[in-house]
UniProtKB/TrEMBL annotation:
UniProt source species: Pogonophryne albipinna
UniProt xrefs under InterPro entries: MACPF, MPEG1
Protein localization: Cytoplasmic vesicle, Phagosome membrane
Membrane topology per record: Multi-pass membrane protein
Function, in words: Pore-forming protein that plays a central role in antigen cross-presentation in dendritic cells by mediating delivery of antigens for cross-presentation. Dendritic cells bridge innate and adaptive immunity by capturing exogenous antigens on MHC class-I molecules and presenting them to naive CD8(+) T-cells. Acts by forming a pore in antigen-containing compartments, promoting the release of antigens into the cytosol, enabling generation of MHCI:peptide complexes and T-cell priming. Pore-forming protein involved in both innate and adaptive immunity. Plays a central role in antigen cross-presentation in dendritic cells by forming a pore in antigen-containing compartments, thereby promoting delivery of antigens for cross-presentation. Also involved in innate immune response following bacterial infection; shows antibacterial activity against a wide spectrum of Gram-positive, Gram-negative and acid-fast bacteria.
A Pfam family the protein falls into: MACPF
Keyword DNA damage part of the UniProt annotation: no
GO BP terms in the entry: adaptive immune response; defense response to bacterium; innate immune response
Protein name per UniProt: Macrophage-expressed gene 1 protein
One cellular component term from this protein's GO annotations in UniProt: phagocytic vesicle membrane
Main localization (coarse): membrane
Family: Belongs to the MPEG1 family.
Keywords tagged on the record: Adaptive immunity, Cytoplasmic vesicle, Disulfide bond, Glycoprotein, Immunity, Innate immunity, Membrane, Signal, Transmembrane, Transmembrane beta strand, Transmembrane helix, Ubl conjugation
MACPF domain residues: 143-299
Amino acid sequence: MKVATSLLALSLLQVCSAVPIGHPTNWLRECRATTNLSVPALEVLLGGRWDNLRNMDTGRVINIGYFQRQTTGDGLYLIPDEVFVIPYKETGVETSSEIISSWQEQKSSTSHSINVEMSFISVLNGKFSKENQRMKTHQVKDSSTTTRVQVRNFIYTVKVYPDFTLDARFAQQAKEIADAIENNQTRNVDYLSERMVLDYGTHVITTIPKYPAKLCALQTYQSNIQYSLIQSHVGGIPFYPGITLQKWQESTRNNLVAIDRSGFPLHYFINTNTFPDLPQPTVGKVAIAVSQAVERYYKVNTRPWCVDVT
């Protein structure tokens, strides 16, 4: 049974910001130009908005900049001002395998930690992701079982500092909700809150383990292999049949990728520390409105008993 991911939009209201906000820049290019640094930037998704139903990055909530020209402790990567990096002192390749007999037991290979976050209907987390939909399609269609083999090489953990600055566009949307609350515009509050969830997802990423690469092989079995997929989560040499693990690993040093993600619900970041210029009661009401919009997003995608085979 297919259930389309959707977001409630109960009000059709045109809302415009009084002051247009320009597209943000992280000043990475300027940083390199003024320091002649040739090291690559540690690309991170910290502070990114995250849709925990679809396991999809949808932009950023925390402003990211390179004004302080920080690097990792080993000097290999530029890192944003808002994050710090914990190096993994051991080296080596981690290999794991598992048998997944039901798609309902599937755990994401790239976002498991944030999928187990319990603030909303956690059983739905990740169930509308491409990874889960692909596995469900082949298991149900072929009445089969899936095996997954993964190869990882862990290097860093990246975390965001608690005293971050919010992205200007996100802050502006939150203030629009606050204005609607103070003017008792209930329908407008619902609409703006749902629009925020549509634009910014359900959660914000605050911690990411970084690997040079990850190789994931999926095979769905019946009496023999019905479907096979090899995924290489890396920007280096594309994986091809016959490539050696050593050659693949050597190409990945400058192409770090996120293999897991953890974070908190979107409304956690609407508080008196991030919005000191708003009245405290109003800030609390904005956070509640956004939390309720996320709850509606989950509920509209819930179909009780739709996978009950009895």
